[in-house]
Amino acid sequence: MTLSQLVSQVPTALLKLDPRHMWRNPVMFVVLIGSVLTTVLAFADPDGFTVAIAVWLWLTVIFGNLAEAVAEGRGKAQAASLRAARKDAVARRLERDGSETEIPGTDLQVGDRVVVEAGEVIPGDGDVVEGIASVDESAITGESAPVIREAGGDRSAVTGGTTVLSDRIVVAITAAPGSTFLDTMIALVEGTSRRKTPNENALTILLSSLTIVFLLAVATLAPMADYAGAPQQTLVLVALLVCLIPTTIGALLSAIGIAGMDRLVRVNVLAMSGRAVEAAGDVGTLLLDKTGTITYGNRRATAFVAQAGLDREVLRDTARLSSLADPTPEGRSIVELALAEGAGDLPLPVGATIVEFSASTRMSGVDLADGTHVRKGAASAVLAWLDDTALPPSVESAVERISADGGTPLVVAVRPPHGAGQVLGVVHLKDVVKPGMADRFAELRRMGIRTVMVTGDNAITGKAIAAEAGVDDVLAEATPEDKMAYIRKEQAGGRLVAMTGDGTNDAPALAAADVGVAMSSGTSAAKEAGNMVDLDSDPTKLIDIVEIGKQLLITRGALTTFSVANDVAKYFAIIPAMFVAAYPGLESLDIMRLHSPESAILSAVVFNALVIVALIPLALKGVKYRVTSASGLLRRNLLVYGLGGLIAPFVGIKALDLLFSSLFGSAL
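^ that's the sequence the OP posted. Answer follows.
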């Protein structure tokens, strides 16, 4: 945060002086009333001390508004870039008879179907119901690489304002104009739709209660002071009240919440509510889909296991040949692995006939022009094709080992034009765990978070992948009902649950979880069910979300501790100055030995205002989260912010007192 950023938000801070805005923050509303009262007193008796107190009370209110304005300003800058991305496109609505009608995108209704071709802007949020296309979503996600969107499956959702780069798709509109995903993003990052979280409301009630207590104490102090023979001016009583109530955290509370959501936006995660961000900080159990989250989601070739006595290169080259025209991810991965291991990058031989995979044969391959047939597929299917009854012992052993490890064995065989066919070996296919996942799960474990892998695979496969990834538990052969039951069980045990998902079948569990992070690439149902959306569609980012949630809670707790400790220290500055004339014994409490009662009060008021400005950067950036125990975190909080909150006012008020006494001398 720079000085220019602070100065640029001053006009917004002044506009927030509107009482209709201020009353939402009871602590600062009391300071506003005190500022008005001291201003009236300054006009009635315009001496330097009264004017100075009035000016610094107004600055206290303005600085509090400035913290909120700066936090909101960051979001408004992001909203401006999002508005620039919003385009009013012309929609080609598909009519029931198959004809197309061009209408403004703003006239589209939920359920309308529109045709979008290469180079055209998608006119509204929806799901692809026909076709496949490459889409540029950089206006929303900031990522320049295009993404694939296709009908069916969990990658069918498209966002209005993005551009189709290739092919043709038909999109069914799922959001009315004005309530699109982009509109929601703009409202959230601007803070216009932000509501206080339950924790914020609870803390506001606590701060309001403390304010009422101090207000009653100061109100009863006036007659007691008169009785003691040390009558106090209304101005001094107002200054005392402002210094004793928790103005520091009262001024920064809103900024802390806004900044927490802003930090999520900066990592391309959109939180639908501040409550979700807070819940992320207290998450105890994390449910992660295996496919696409822990693993790449498609089985990939990882090894060629040749029959005993056969050159491994023969198996490698033959498996590559059988997969050259295979469009499946598995087929492409076999070609990639063969090339990586030194196979020649030769085209399909002339005259070769492609044999596509079918559910009945459970094989695919190629028939060469010389009559040689090459196949790869399930072991039983290849045996039946060879008219054989058993695999070679070395191949059978490899098949059993791969299956036990949770992989898929793909047997490769050749049948020449004349003579018996031969099994060459096995291609090991496995759902590959993404690199670095084990380290990230170990980090979650240090945070005290249990990780649970959710998969539709059988228990053997699930446990094998779980062991490799390093997760704590496995929910195998999981149905949507199983996910819901697991979430309910964890919540019944007092643990908050977070989950990522992208499919329609994930929607019920996303809605039930305390933190449901839907992938932007997922279905509309998933995004509507979750309370967060990851624009990068990176499920592992949930770790960052948890850290940001914890950082929000720690920052709020740290500054609350600092604020309360601050008020204790200011007590020693003002109370002795007010009553030392009537009660000389109070001089022992004047441990700062301030210049005069007026200087003590003015120094405390000025420090009270300046400390708000000094803490704005910390409120926006957040207290750095370190993986430690709750008791260790509490000790650190009390040591740094509790003790710091006690010491800082003594140093600051004394320094200001020395400054004022040297500048104004006997005037104070």
